[in-house]
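HOLO CASE FILE
Compound: iron/sulfur cluster
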Amino acid sequence: MGYLDGFRVTFKKLFEQRVTQQYPAEKQEKPVRLHGRHVLNRYEDGMEKCIGCELCAGVCPAKCIYVRGKDNPVDDPVSPGERYGFVYEINYLRCIHCDLCVEACPTEAITESKLFEFSFTNRYDAIYTRDELLVDGDGRPRQLPWEDWREGEDEWTSGWMRATSPSGDVAFENTVAWSGELGHGIRPPEQGQRADGGGE
Amino acid sequence: MSEAPADIEITDPVTITLDGRQVVVQRGALLIDACERNGVYIPRFCYHPRMRPVGMCRMCLVEVDTGRGASLQPSCMLQCSSDMVVDTQSDKTRKAQEGVLEFLLLNHPLDCPVCDRGGECPLQDQTVGYGPGETRFVDEKRHYEKPIAISRTVLLDRERCILCDRCTRFAKEVAGDPLIDFQDRGSRTQVNTFPNQPFASYFSGNTVQICPVGALTAEPYRFKARPWDLEIVESSCTTCSVGCRVTIQSSRNQVLRCLGVDSDPVNWGWLCDKGRYGVEALNAEGRLGVPLGRGRSVKTDDETALEEVSWAGALRTAADAITSALDRRGPEGVAVIGGARLTNEAQYAWVKLLKGVIGTDNLDAQLGDGIPAEIVLGLPLATIDDACRPGSTTVVVSGDPKEELPILYLRLRHAAVQDGVNLIEIGPKAGGLTPYATVAMHPLPGELADLVRAVVGGGAGGAVAGVDPASIERARSLLADTDGEMTLVVGRRSLSEDTGFTADAVSVLVSAYDKVRILPALRRANVLGALTMGMAPGVLPGRVALAAAPDAYSTRWPALPAGRGLDTTGILTAAAEGRIDTLILLGADPLTDFPDRDLAERALAGARNVIAVDQFVNDSVRLAEVVLPAAGFAECAGTTTNIEGRILKLEQSTTPPGTARPDWMIAAELAAELGSDLGLDSVEQIWKEIAELSPSHVDLTWEMLSDPQNRDGLVARGDPLPGSVRFEAPEPTAHRALDSYSLRLVATRKLYDEGTMVGRCRSCAGLAEETALAMNPHDFERLGVEDGGRVTVSSKRGSTVIEARGEAGVPRNSVALVVNAPNFDVGTLIDANDAVNEVRVEALQSVAGETGSEGGS
Ligand code: SF4
Ligand code: SF4
Ligand code: SF4
Ligand code: SF4
Ligand code: FES
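Model generated. Tokens follow.
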């Protein structure tokens, strides 16, 4: 057969099932614990959870968070309590998505979504401001022009909180220890998180 | 917080057993301090080494056996005695610590994430270090309204208070302003102010610094940053000339707060509020970051407003103004006022430029509101510790230290109250020190020297200068017991009185007692540095008299002034008469600060060109031809000299706004523009040149000053050397006898006034109080004036209508006003050439009835 031998592999592969996907037209499903870009959450009544305590900024190993607090306006408070996060910025050129900020936050204000697909064309766009990080009036992340999203991906914004065990103490087993969120209420634990193996 | 106990020398040693090891400690020292000095830190809340222990919090319980069996005792209340056995690690001690913390946290809100103390909170730290880790308390905690403002700058969150008594003790014991106290009983006990009496103490910020929790927080720093944001450098406050050690804390190139550092010879950790919050002015609106100039060099043309120009252009204009002055009149045509706010190095650079290059001696750092340079430079200097040496006698001939040098006041007050120091206060009127002085005398303006002569000489025994004979006698006997050794705190008593009287009084004291040392009570930040560096007529760097200038100066400097120049009053008079071509204002605002308003106005109008180097455009700067923006406090490194002659390092924390530059650089560049090289290109190198040239600084190397061991500063040689400026007894200043219609004017300072920096500091602005005409109630009847009534007060310069107020501490036959007050400018009444300014006071009959009810004291 001579030279046709050389095409054997080619023809064989032609009829095998393909593993390549037409990314970005087609996408794989993401694992639920994927660390994507952050969101700033709100309570069910719409108040911001962030109190501007800067613990996230303090713990961040990449030093990419910049927070400044301010007194809550008395007649129209932004968050419960005395202070709110007045400036909140994360620089995604530096963030390594370690989620230490999420762990440090005392109010579950900052959590990570599954959204990691963004391609900015300048450095300023890489710095997400408070307005960009805050969830909208329905409790959904805001989509920025350079972000590539699929249907339903914006549901998964508090994955980390839900993946954490409800509480370290056996006495609180099966008791949900996180607060409700605008648009979602109190989210149920995930599969396998409860002592009885229940959950979603 | 630097709250470690001061190191002591062990004079009476005893041996104690501390955690199983034998240590030698001072008998009678507090156990908590003795342990810390030996490396064992005992947790505590209420104990503060600068205040009396009270044993309030019980956190410092340790197991101690004094021979009667081990028991838990508060180590802050226990004095070391021989053979004590102390166990700070025993189970019992640990259980006590856990118990105390669990109790303290019962009602504690755990606001940490929103609490300004979070991250630097002794309660947090000690709970982590010594606490039980868990609480058994599940009920609702006690609630109070979240922070209430107890003064303009202090917020109190009573939920967080652990009742340690630190703030209240500070207010009572240290500041002498007992305006906060414990109220209510049991679990409702709270710290609070009294109704309608805010915690308006000049020292209120210290309570925020020493509160071991976040119960007291500072409004200016509220939610500004968290401890981990801050970059910290140690420096010295340059708001006044006490030179308190501070840490400057900044974030993102903005100074956010200053905290006091415990410097044993100087401030003991305390700061006054003006110094603490004064840094706000650095970021204030209107801060200059670019040079300003005028389109055309016509000063009279109002149309040409100040506008932004380039540095090159601004320096060219300034150099041209100086050159034209030199051409027209020679060096005498150039004069400089100000410079007290500069660092030592910048002062040296400017003096080298002015005296060594331009050759003018018309240079004065004091704005006619100080005392003659010869008193400061020609007499041996004392330290604050000298003035406060237990059992000694200190004479205070100055304005009110509480208003001018607040921390010096705290030290003197402590000395009088706790260390048995006899204060003889000879002030212009009763002030902050009066209640603590052994003898307080308030002679009539113009009669100070007569009083001092009577005290020193003894004599007829009648009243002198309006002071009763008993006080004079008491002062005399106190001084007789001193062996001639005493500290004389001397400053400007009143701005409406000639300094000749002060010089007179000083010379009387100096010749009567042989070991008098001077502690100058001058308020401008680095005025001692300015005088020492030669920013006064007739002086060269190192207290050297121009007339006796050693060769070193003429060899190292291109030129030297031909003869003694003018002081500020002289410069302004000459300028008003058109004899000064170029007037340089070095951070000075004579229109506000010079006592005689009329003369200052005529002078600024009379000078052909005005050049200003400043941080803000104030009234005087507004008239300048060209304005060069200068770096401020915390924006440039260097050294400063405090009232003791102590050289203290200043560190840079942030960068100056825009293209503002350090003052020494401006001097060097101006020299270059004039075609001369100052040869100065770094702060360190300038200091080296100072140390080589100046006899007062010979032994002080930059390395020594930078050594962390010497963070309290090094005192420059304060004794006059051969060739130094000499203090010689002046011709007694004459004063006219009082006619029966006139009253002598006393013009004194208040801490908060309408000055350039205070007005730009958000927390201090608006604290300046309106002045009333204070007079002795005994004079009311004679003048037909009522307390609180409105009167016309007039001098030969001007007149105004103002409220009269009775104040028993004002000498009879005189009236007192506050300078730089928001409602009235005393400068409009003062003639700087009069030894004593006199005014007439007439009641305004028609209005007196209506307003008669308010006021009173
Ligand atoms: S995920 Fe990690 S790196 Fe990114 S902001 Fe949070 S703490 Fe910083
Ligand atoms: S996100 Fe959380 S940790 Fe960060 S400042 Fe806000 S409340 Fe604090
Ligand atoms: S306010 Fe602070 S300093 Fe004052 S008693 Fe309470 S805890 Fe102590
Ligand atoms: S006393 Fe003077 S040096 Fe001390 S903090 Fe106040 S202004 Fe600063
Ligand atoms: S520190 Fe001793 S009782 Fe508070």
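CASE NOTES: Chain A touches chain B at residues 51-55, 57-58, 68-71, 81-83, 106-107 (CB under 8 Å). Strands of chain A lie at 38-40, 65-71, 83-91, 110-112, 127-128.
CLOSED: yes
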